[in-house]
């Protein structure tokens, strides 16, 4: 059994539509524990740095503009195989390709306005958690 931590964002389109609670419910129903969380208004520099791997792609500037268009919720989720399991719970990037019952199939508006982010690998999870949280902001939940 591998207990992992993964990084998650409830993106501005979902925060604007008052979907924080229902999306958090999906995390908890799936057995993922929230071990850190906060609401943030990202700066342009923060959003550009977070999505640095996409710099130069045609959708980069609009992605950054979207991510700073309103507050986001950032959180760390913990659980068995949390990284892959949370990616499955979110569904594919494009909601039209996302499996029924996934967060993106149920709530996303479009490929860009797709409601949630989740780390895609252990290396990304470590980088992304560290990008937004200090180590002492994570609460152990071993119960
Ligand atoms: P992911 O969020 O499923 O990991 P990535 O490929 O890392 O997907 O893309 C990051 C984000 O950029 C997506 O979640 C989506 O909001 C946006 N995005 C990705 N590809 C496109 C595109 O082709 N057009 C518009 N936005 C895109």
UniProtKB/TrEMBL annotation:
Key words, A-Z: ATP-binding, Cytoplasm, Kinase, Magnesium, Metal-binding, Nucleotide metabolism, Nucleotide-binding, Phosphoprotein, Transferase
Annotated binding of ATP, by residue: 11, 59, 87, 93, 104, 114
PROSITE patterns xrefs: NDPK, NDPK_LIKE
Catalytic reaction annotation: a ribonucleoside 5'-diphosphate + ATP = a ribonucleoside 5'-triphosphate + ADP; a 2'-deoxyribonucleoside 5'-diphosphate + ATP = a 2'-deoxyribonucleoside 5'-triphosphate + ADP
Catalytic residues identified in the record: 117
Subunit structure: Homotetramer.
Entry GO terms, CC: cytoplasm
Locations listed in the record: Cytoplasm
Function description: Major role in the synthesis of nucleoside triphosphates other than ATP. The ATP gamma phosphate is transferred to the NDP beta phosphate via a ping-pong mechanism, using a phosphorylated active-site intermediate.
One biological process term in Gene Ontology: GTP biosynthetic process
Cofactor(s) annotated in UniProt: Mg(2+)
Span of domain Nucleoside diphosphate kinase-like: 3-140
Family label: Belongs to the NDK family.
SUPFAM superfamilies linked: Nucleoside diphosphate kinase, NDK (SSF54919)
Name recorded for this polypeptide: Nucleoside diphosphate kinase
Gene Ontology molecular function, alphabetical: ATP binding; metal ion binding; nucleoside diphosphate kinase activity
Organism annotation: Photobacterium carnosum
Primary gene name: ndk
